[in-house]
Amino acid sequence: MTGDPPFEFAWFKDGQKLVDIRGVSIRHIDDFTSNLVISKVDADSNGNYTCRVSNSAGIDEKSAILSVKDAPQISPFLFQRTEFRYAGIRQCAVMIGDPPFEFTWFKDGQKLTNIHGVSIGKFDDFTSNLVISKVDAGSNGNYTCKVANNAGLDEKSAMLSVKDAPIIGPFHFSGELDVGMRATVVCAVMRGEPPFNSHGTKMDNS
């Protein structure tokens, strides 16, 4: 702003002199101006930057802190299937990024909150848990975890598709049966989703 050329410009990061390296360049615009250019700013660019100018009469310097956060990146998650039930706890974990984070869970595009049978908890600064206390066919849907910080956001989704276990209606043998007669009964599934594996069992009541 004031002073008589010629000037000598020098740039520093955290006390270390900067030179033209990959991603960082220093440009002298004119006798009074030097530019520092960072081609791609990310969390590795964070630090205390200093511009120092000197001439035969003395020196001056000014500094500024660069503090950049990485946008979050979430690890994919799945619902693990058992025969008719799925694990009811899922974790949404941030693998890359800088806190604080805001976690939000959705089911089929609708925001989830702590309601009957569903709870959302923060395990730590990088992890949120979704707990479904009783998983059944009514829990089916597309579940999404969205994480945001000041630098951006990320989201991952997983489909929960669970079948109800079969429930068979009662049956009985009617009438008097003699040896050699044919008897027929119906085994009917009252609730549950096919395909089913049918197995007949004879009980020995003797």
Would you give an account of this structure?
- The chain has 206 residues and is an all-beta fold.
- The strands form 5 sheets. Strands 2-1-5-6 form a 4-stranded antiparallel β-sheet, with no helix packed on it. A 4-stranded antiparallel β-sheet has the order 7-8-12-11, with no helix packed on it. It has a 4-stranded antiparallel β-sheet with strand order 10-9-13-14, with no helix packed on it.
- The chain has strands spanning 8-13, 16-17, 24-30, 33-38, 47-55, 58-66, 73-74, 89-96, 102-107, 110-111, 118-124, 127-132, 141-149, 152-160, 167-168, 189-191.
- The chain is 0% helix and 45% strand.
- Strand 3 and strand 4 (33-38) form a beta hairpin.
- The protein contains no helices and 16 strands.
- It is rod-shaped.
- It comes from Caerostris extrusa (Bark spider).
- InterPro entries: Cell_Adh-Cytoskel_Orgn, Ig-like_dom, Ig-like_dom_sf, Ig-like_fold, Ig_I-set, Ig_sub, Ig_sub2.
- One of its GO terms (molecular function) is axon guidance receptor activity.
